[in-house]
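Intended use. Records like the one below are meant for learning the mapping from a protein sequence to its folded structure. Do not use them to infer anything beyond what is encoded.
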Amino acid sequence: MSDLQSRLRELPQVSVLFEDDRLAPLMTGRRRGWMTRVIQDVVDELRRELRQASGPVRNRAELLEVAVDRILVRNRQLTGKSWTRVLNGTGVVVHTNLGRSCHPPEAAEAARQTALYNSDLEFDLPSGTRGHRGRAVEGKAALLAGAADALVVNNNAAAVWLAVRHLSRGGRVVLSRGEVVAIGGSFKMHEILSETGCTLVEVGTTNRTSLEDYRQALEPGTTVLKVHRSNFVVEGFTEDVTLTELADLCRAADCPLIYDAGSGAFFPYEDLGLPAGETLLVEDLAAGADLVTCSGDKLLGGCQAGILFGGREVIAGLRNHPMRRAFRVDKTTLAALDAILTQYLIAEDRPSLPTLDQLGRSLGQLEEKAGRLLNELVPVAPSGWNGAVVPGRSSVGGGSFSTATIESRLVQWKAAKNQLEACYQRLRMGDPALVARMNQDGLAVDVRTITEEELPLVVAAFKAAWADSPSEAGD
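Structure written out for the chain above:
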């Protein structure tokens, strides 16, 4: 008998696993159907491993234990939550991998209430007839941006697609070569545009595009798209066309202009010490574009959504577009966005939003917070670990202010490299997880992106990570 046959003979049968005392309680009622598939998947997984294995043949009892352990782990994963709360110690405020902008309590509660109970989502209570989904939310967004009307869709990629498809109707779309951008994940502007059925006409070069380049490309039926380069900069020998200049040219040529503002902003971020470069949405609309699109979960500081701003006629056309339904948002997103927009409407100065609050924290506040965190951790730190409050730099994230950083304060630890790396990993495996910084300077937490309420959780995360290595712990 070959080694492979010997290995496969020891594989536990599915029927044996069904009857195992540890698994039998999980095979009751309607659970039996999907648990059966889990067991079959684990057995198939083991069979593939055995086909590739070498060395001594494991006996049936060993493989049974391996299979049962994997099935129990898979069951816990499937019946538990699919994500873990993360403490953001990176200093990246709008961290794409960690969910971008956090909701204010008002938005979370609005989404919760809307999820739990029925609402007038598409029902006009005064008339007793069907109403327009998102009517009040879109009205608030339009008012803040100085637009006649607005439309909310599920993200900015959808907003750009819908805008281009509706205005170009499969015709020519002019775009500067320097604005054929790519962002995180798989989003590439030219690929999105190709799916609209339009003919993309690139003008200018990567570093220089002039008004004359646009003028030469315009002809009847042409749509012009301008994209804000929010996640990179072009420096040196460059030339660009302002949105106002391009809007004047398009208006004279009777060609519609779409502006993808990217992150979108209702608040002047220069007031928080950030450099100029991100215009307000109200300024983008005033510049003369027919449609302006933006994201809701970046500089706007809210939930994932795409918002289109423009005249009543063009927004009505988008609202009636056959594909609009495919891009619409659900009731909880609308409720959260409504609460966020309300914060802008009621604020006398800076709205009370986590993204703006984190970016607006002063150095004095950060220094004091970092000091308190360090004082909590020093007494329980492992022997040989040295902690200190040190200067650092935070960033906005989310593809905004790509080269700008903000002075911050870090709680930084120095120790043996292997100890730091092990702790860095253990912090990520906690619940809540703590994602910190790790580089040649040591292991650090940027307190800009840690809230006051999270400080005890950060302390607990370090204690747990250090306790997992008792040989490293101090007295």
